[in-house]
Amino acid sequence: MPTNNINMIEITDLASPDLLPYTMREVGLLRYYEPKEGLFIAESPKVIRRAIDAGYEVVSALVEHDHIKHPTDEISDVLSYLVNVPVYTAEFDILTNLTGYKLTRGMLALMRRRILPSVSDICKDATRIAVLEDVVNPTNLGAIFRSAAALNVDAILLTPACTDPLYRRAARVSMGTVFQIPWTILRNGYAEMKELGYKTAAMALTHRSISLSDPTPAKEKKLAIILGSEGNGLKQETIDLCDYTIRIPMQENVDSLNVAAASAVAFWELCKK
């Protein structure tokens, strides 16, 4: 699209208050308007477009000169939604100096967070949900969201210690699926799953684990698949309260799969339509 329709602003002062959010850490953005919902940064045209499609408000954007002069179809598409917001632009080196990292596909967008839905709201019509316990690596979390969106998971719940799905790296690795699949924070413990009618399945290797190939869990009308942290896996108290404990059959002398890989295998087997 023609860039003369865009409120294009050449960056001349890296200390401008309008650019401050692009220099901040994720936690600072999260708390930017505290106690109200804060901000987050979406990176790459695909991720930004999916956030826009999900109804998130764009505050401003940051675009490299080269991507303004020679925009891809994806960037032109996103710019068509930004006619009413400031679009800051500069050379690659200046933007890297400003943000502290190289922009993926030359584009960032500063966006407003929204109030998270309740657990009951996102689980209202969900028959298959994933529950993530203390998953702190943004790359793993993003990969889990991407697998969940692809493999028929209806919603995702996260314990409060999990990394934030709207953190830049998590959203980028998810390819924007954090804006497609409903999610929220599970603040009142796993008893809420039982109250909503879910059978719970802990993905863990214990003496009472059943094989993922066992057909029984997949037959449940409503199933919550619970996955643990990268290091220690699920807490023992979580495993103890679950209806099923499921292991993924593997070759000998292999301890376990990465949580992101394990989630994809589990979703494939337990979430078939």
Report what the structure shows.
The chain is of the alpha/beta class and 273 residues long. The chain folds into 2 domains: 110 residues, Ribosomal protein L30/S12 (60s Ribosomal Protein L30, Chain: A, 2-Layer Sandwich); 152 residues, 3-Layer(aba) Sandwich (Alpha/beta knot), CATH 3.40.1280.10. It has 11 helices and 12 strands. Strands 8-7-6-11-9-12-10 form a 7-stranded parallel sheet. A 5-stranded mixed sheet has the order 1-4-3-5-2. It is elongated, with a radius of gyration of 21 Å.
Radius of gyration (CA) equals: 21 Å
Strand order, sheet with most strands: 8-7-6-11-9-12-10
- Using the coordinates shown, work out and report the CATH topology of the largest domain: Alpha/beta knot
Query: In which range does the helix fraction lie?
Result: 25-40%
Number of domains: 2
- Strand fraction: 15-25%
Unreliable segments of 5+ consecutive residues = none
Shape: elongated
| Total E-strand runs | 12
Task: Name the CATH superfamily classification of the largest domain.
Answer: SPOUT methyltransferase, trefoil knot domain
Note the main sheet.
7 strands, parallel
Count of helical regions: 11
Q: SSE string, helix = H, strand = E?
A: EHEHEHHEHEHEHEHEHEEEHEH
CATH architecture heading of the largest domain = 3-Layer(aba) Sandwich
The first-to-last residue Cα distance is 41 Å
Structural class per helix/strand content? alpha/beta
CATH class of the largest domain: Alpha Beta
The overall average pLDDT, rounded, is 93
